[in-house]
Design goal:
Layout: H1 2-7, E1 10-15, E2 18-23, H2 25-53, H3 59-74, H4 83-89, H5 99-130, H6 145-157, H7 179-190, H8 196-211, H9 213-227, H10 233-242, E3 254-257, H11 268-287, E4 314-317, E5 324-327, E6 333-338, E7 341-346, E8 348-349, E9 352-353, H12 356-368, H13 382-385, H14 388-398, H15 402-412, E10 417-420, H16 432-444, E11 457-461, E12 467-471, H17 478-496, E13 516-517, H18 524-542, E14 544-551, H19 556-561, H20 566-582, E15 588-593, E16 602-606, H21 610-620, H22 625-647, H23 653-665, H24 671-677, E17 683-687, E18 709-711, E19 719-726, E20 730-738, H25 746-765
Parallel strand pairs: 6-10, 10-11, 15-17, 17-19
Antiparallel strand pairs: 1-2, 3-12, 3-18, 4-5, 6-7, 7-13, 8-9, 11-12, 14-20, 15-16, 19-20
Helix pairs in contact: 3-5, 4-5, 5-6, 7-8, 9-23, 11-12, 11-17, 20-21, 20-22, 20-25, 21-22, 23-24
Length: 789
C-alpha cells in the first residue's frame, strides 16, 4: 500500500482540540511536478498546432508582413489599394482611437488577412504540386525536365524544418478511379487464373455492373470523396478490422523480431529497462512532433503521418457488433504481465521520466515478486485472443464497475503493454532454423494468454534478454510500427547501452514506489468463459506452421546489378515457387501504401499477372534462356507499373471494396462485387523495408540487423509471406500457413523459394552482356556475426 499512502497529499483528524491537518510535502511536490509536466505538454501541443496550422509559413513571418506593410505606408504608398481605409471605416473602436492608431490597427488587420491569404495560397499550391505523380512512372535515374522543375517547386513551397504533422493539410485527397479503369484492371488481373468460360462469365458480370448499378454507386463514392479526407480509410478500419468477429490473434495482429545475431544483454530486467525507456523517448519526440516527416526514400515527397496519432495510450475495445479503438491523450504508466500476474509500472516520478537503470530496478521487483495470481487472473488475456463476441459480453458483465473495471483501465489506458516471458527465444542451439520458427510463433501468439492482443502494441522481453513486438492492426499498418521498432532497437544498443555487467546505466532513486500488482474479483462462471476463449485461441495457434530463414547467398545488391527491381524479383520468385509446389497460379496480394494521400493506408498490388504467368510457364517448359529473360523483364516492368498505380490511387481492390460498402448501405445486391470480394488470397505477401537506415551501421556492425517481422496466413489453404531486404546481401523470409491444410507446408515452400531465388539469378547472370561480371554465389554469415548461445 506504499503507493496509496504516497498518493495522499494531506490527512486530517478531528480531535477535541480541533482539526489536526497533516500535509505530505513529498506528495504535494510530486503532484506539483506531475501537473507541471502536463501543462508543459499542453503548451507544446498548442505551440505545435500553431506552427502546423500556418505551415508552410511560420508564425514569425506574420511580423515580417506587418512590418513590410507599415514601412510601405510610411513612404506614403497604399499597398492595399484602398482596403486599409475600408477596414478603418468599419473598425468597432474607431471613435476611441486617434486617427493614427486607427490607421495602424487597420494596417495590422490588413496585414494579417494578407498573411493568411498567402498561407492558404501556398498550401493550395503545395497540394496541387503533391497531386502530380508523373515522376513515379519515369525511368529510374532519368528524370524529365518537368519533374526536375516540379521537385524544385516542391522544395520551395515546403518551407523549412517541417514538424511531423506539418504536411497534413497540404496532402491531396485520394482520388476515386473511374469504374471503367478499375474493371479493366480487374479483368486483366484475373485472366491468367480463369479458363475461357469462367473469364467470359466474369466479363459479362463486369460489363453489366459497369453499365448499370456501378454508375449509381460511383456517384455516391465521389460524393463521399468530396466530403471526407479519404474515401477508403474509415470504412477499411471499420469493416475489415473492427467488425471482424473472429480472433485478432494470428488473423490480424503481426510481430517484429529482435536483432538476429546479437543480444545486447542477457539480463531480462535490463533489456526491459532500456526497451521501455527508448520507447518513451520516441513517444516524447512524437508528442513534440520532433520526428522528421516520413518521405519517399531519396526524395522530398512527404507521406501522411496520421497513423502516428494513436500509437501510444491506445487500446481496442470489444463490442458485440463492432469493436472500437480508444485513445487517451497521455499515460504515465505501462502495464506489465509476468507469471500470470498484472502490474502497473509508473514510468514517471514527479514529472521526470525514469532512467533505464531505475526501470530495470522496477522490473526486477516484478520478477522477484512472490505473489501468486488471483483466481482467474493468470489466463485472463485469453479473452483478447479468442472470438470477439464472448469477450465483449464478458467485459460488459464483469468489468463494468468496481475493482475489475479499475484494473482493466490500468491495462487499457497504459502507454503500452509489456510481457516478461519465462521462455528463452532467438536463433540459438544446435538447430538455429527451428529456434527461429519457435521465436516467430511465440511473438505471434505466445501461450495465447500471456499477451494483451487488444493493445496498440506490446513488447515481449524473454528470459535470455531477447525481445520482440506484437502489434494490433486496426489503428495503423506495419511501416508505422516498424519506424518505432527501429528507433527502439537502435537507441537501446547504440545510445543507451549497458555497463560491463550487462545492467542499464545510471543511478537509482531508492524512494521509488514499487510496481503495483493489479487486483481482480473474477467469479467461477467468468473463469469458464476464459477457458472457452483459450481453447479457441489455442486451437488456432497450434494450427499455425511457421518457417523463418535468412537467405544470404545474395541480396538486393546483386539483383540491382541485373537491372531488375528487387521487389519485383522477389514477387516473381514467389510466383515461381508457388507454381512449382502447387502446379497452378493463385490470386496474390502484395501490400502497397497510399500514404502519398491524406489519411492513406494500404492498397493491393495483384502480383500474379499475365506477364508473370507467361514467364513462369516459359521457364518451367524449358524455353530459350533469352526468351525467358525477355519475359522476366516484361513481368518485372508490369509489376512495377502495378505497384506505382496502387501507390498513386489507381489500385483495384479498395475501389471495389468501397463500391461494395455503398451497395450494402443502399440495400442493393451486386453479383459481380459479391464474387470479387469472396475470392481467396492464397498468397498474401508484404515487404518490410528498413526506413531509418541512418540508425544502423551495417558496414561496421553487420551483426546488428533485425530479422524483420511476419504475420499469419490470410487463407486457410494459403501462405502468408513477409520479406525484408537487409543491406545489400541478405533477404529475410517469414512464411506462415496452417497444418490443417494438406496442400501447404511452410518449410517445403521455403525450400522452393530458395531454389527459385537461385534459378532467377542464374538466369539473369547468364545474360551474354553480363557474363563477364558474374561471380559465384556463396553461402556464409555476415562478418563478425555470431549466433546467440
Amino acid at each position: 500500500m506504499a503507493e496509496a499512502h504516497q498518493a495522499v497529499a494531506f490527512q486530517f483528524t478531528v480531535t477535541p482540540e480541533g482539526i489536526d491537518l497533516q500535509l505530505s510535502h513529498q506528495a504535494l511536490s510530486q503532484i506539483y511536478l506531475s501537473g507541471l509536466r502536463s501543462w508543459k505538454k499542453r503548451f507544446i501541443r498548442i505551440k505545435n498546432s500553431m506552427i502546423t496550422g500556418v505551415y508552410p509559413a511560420s508564425p514569425s513571418s506574420w511580423l515580417f508582413v506587418v512590418i513590410a506593410i507599415l514601412a510601405t505606408m510610411y513612404t506614403r504608398s497604399d499597398p492595399s489599394m484602398g482596403l486599409i481605409a475600408k477596414i478603418q471605416e468599419h473598425l468597432p473602436v474607431s471613435e476611441s482611437l486617434s486617427a493614427q492608431c486607427q490607421t495602424v490597427v487597420s494596417a495590422v488587420v490588413f496585414s494579417t488577412l494578407l498573411w493568411l491569404s498567402l498561407i492558404l495560397t501556398m498550401r493550395l499550391c503545395l497540394k496541387q504540386l503533391l497531386s502530380y505523380h508523373g515522376w513515379m512512372f519515369e525511368q529510374h535515374g532519368k528524370l524529365s525536365s518537368t519533374t526536375k522543375a516540379w521537385m524544385a517547386l516542391v522544395r520551395i513551397f515546403s518551407g523549412r524544418q517541417p514538424l511531423l504533422y506539418s504536411y497534413q493539410g497540404s496532402l491531396p485527397n485520394l482520388p476515386v478511379p473511374t469504374i471503367k479503369d478499375t474493371i479493366h484492371r480487374y479483368l486483366d488481373s484475373v485472366r491468367p487464373l480463369m479458363d475461357a468460360n469462367q473469364f467470359e462469365r466474369m466479363s459479362s458480370l463486369a460489363r453489366e455492373f459497369e453499365s448499370g448499378m456501378g454508375k449509381r454507386l460511383q456517384w455516391y463514392l465521389k460524393l463521399k470523396s468530396l466530403w471526407a479526407a479519404n474515401y477508403v480509410s474509415d470504412w477499411w478500419e471499420e469493416y475489415i478490422y473492427l467488425r471482424g468477429r473472429s480472433p485478432i490473434m494470428v488473423n490480424s495482429n503481426y510481430y517484429g523480431m529482435d536483432f538476429l545475431y546479437v543480444t545486447p544483454t542477457p539480463i531480462q530486467a535490463a533489456r526491459a529497462g532500456n526497451t521501455i525507456h527508448a520507447c518513451l523517448l520516441y513517444r516524447r519526440k512524437l508528442n513534440r512532433e520532433e520526428l522528421k516527416p516520413s518521405r519517399i526514400p531519396g526524395s522530398v515527397i512527404p507521406l501522411c503521418a496520421a497513423q502516428c496519432e494513436r500509437m501510444f495510450n491506445t487500446s481496442r475495445t470489444p463490442g458485440e457488433e463492432t469493436d472500437t479503438v480508444q485513445h487517451w491523450q497521455d499515460s504515465e504508466f505501462v502495464a506489465v504481465f509476468h507469471r500470470g500476474r498484472y502490474f502497473r509500472l509508473w514510468v514517471y516520478q514527479a514529472g521526470r521520466l525514469l532512467s533505464p537503470r531505475e526501470l530495470e530496478y522496477q522490473v526486477q521487483h516484478i520478477l522477484d515478486d512472490p505473489a501468486v495470481p488471483a483466481p482467474g487472473e493468470e489466463k485472463l488475456g485469453a479473452l483478447t485472443a479468442g472470438d470477439r463476441i464472448p469477450w465483449a459480453k464478458a467485459r460488459k458483465t464483469y468489468f463494468g464497475s468496481g475493482l475489475n473495471k479499475r484494473s482493466l483501465d490500468c491495462i487499457e489506458k497504459a502507454a503500452f503493454f509489456v510481457t516478461l516471458d519465462d521462455e528463452e527465444q532467438g536463433m540459438m542451439g544446435d538447430n538455429p532454423g527451428a529456434s527461429l520458427d519457435r521465436y516467430a510463433k511465440s511473438l505471434l501468439h505466445g501461450k495465447c494468454y500471456d499477451r494483451w492482443f487488444d493493445k496498440s502494441f506490446s513488447f515481449v522481453i524473454y528470459k535470455n534478454g531477447k525481445n520482440g513486438l506484437n502489434a494490433e492492426h486496426s489503428w495503423a499498418d506495419a511501416p508505422t510500427v516498424a519506424h518505432l521498432w527501429e528507433y527502439v532497437l537502435a537507441t537501446d544498443s547504440f545510445q543507451l547501452g549497458y555497463n560491463t555487467e550487462g545492467h542499464c546505466k545510471g543511478e537509482v532513486d531508492p524512494s521509488l514506489p514499487r510496481p503495483h500488482k493489479l487486483s481482480w474479483d473474477l467469479p467461477p462462471e467468468f473463469q469458464e468463459q476464459v477457458g472457452r476463449s483459450l481453447a479457441v485461441a489455442q486451437a488456432l495457434a497450434d494450427d499455425i506452421d511457421f518457417h523463418v530463414f535468412s537467405f544470404r547467398e545474395f541480396g538486393k545488391g546483386r539483383i540491382k546489378k541485373c537491372r531488375i527491381s528487387p521487389d519485383a524479383f522477389i514477387q516473381l520468385t514467389l510466383q515461381l515457387a508457388y507454381y512449382r509446389e502447387r502446379g497452378m497460379f493463385c490470386l496474390t496480394y502484395e501490400a502497397s501504401m497510399t500514404r502519398l494521400f491524406r489519411e492513406g493506408r494500404t492498397e493491393t498490388v495483384r502480383s500474379c499477372s499475365n506477364e508473370s504467368c507467361a514467364f513462369v510457364t516459359a521457364l518451367e517448359e524449358g524455353e530459350d534462356a533469352e526468351e525467358c529473360r525477355r519475359l522476366l523483364r516484361a513481368a518485372s516492368d508490369k509489376h512495377q507499373n502495378l505497384y506505382r498505380l496502387a501507390m498513386t490511387g489507381g489500385g483495384i481492390d479498395r475501389h471495389l471494396f468501397c463500391l461494395y460498402v455503398v451497395s450494402k448501405y443502399l440495400g442493393l445486391d451486386s453479383p459481380f462485387l459479391k464474387e470479387v470480394l469472396s475470392e481467396p488470397w492464397r498468397l498474401s505477401t508484404s515487404q518490410t523495408a528498413v526506413q531509418q537506415v541512418e540508425l544502423f551501421d551495417l558496414v561496421n556492425h553487420p551483426e546488428f540487423i533485425s530479422c524483420g517481422g511476419g504475420f499469419g496466413p490470410v487463407a486457410d489453404d494459403g501462405y502468408g509471406v513477409s520479406y525484408s531486404l537487409v543491406g545489400e546481401n541478405m533477404i529475410n523470409f517469414h512464411i506462415s500457413c496452417k497444418h490443417s491444410c494438406p496442400h501447404t507446408d511452410a518449410h517445403k515452400f521455403g525450400g522452393q523459394v530458395r531454389k527459385a531465388l537461385g534459378d532467377l539469378l542464374d538466369l539473369m547472370c547468364s545474360e551474354p552482356s553480363r557474363t563477364s561480371s558474374r561471380t559465384p554465389r556463396t553461402t556464409g554469415t555476415p562478418p563478425a556475426a555470431k549466433k546467440d548461445q
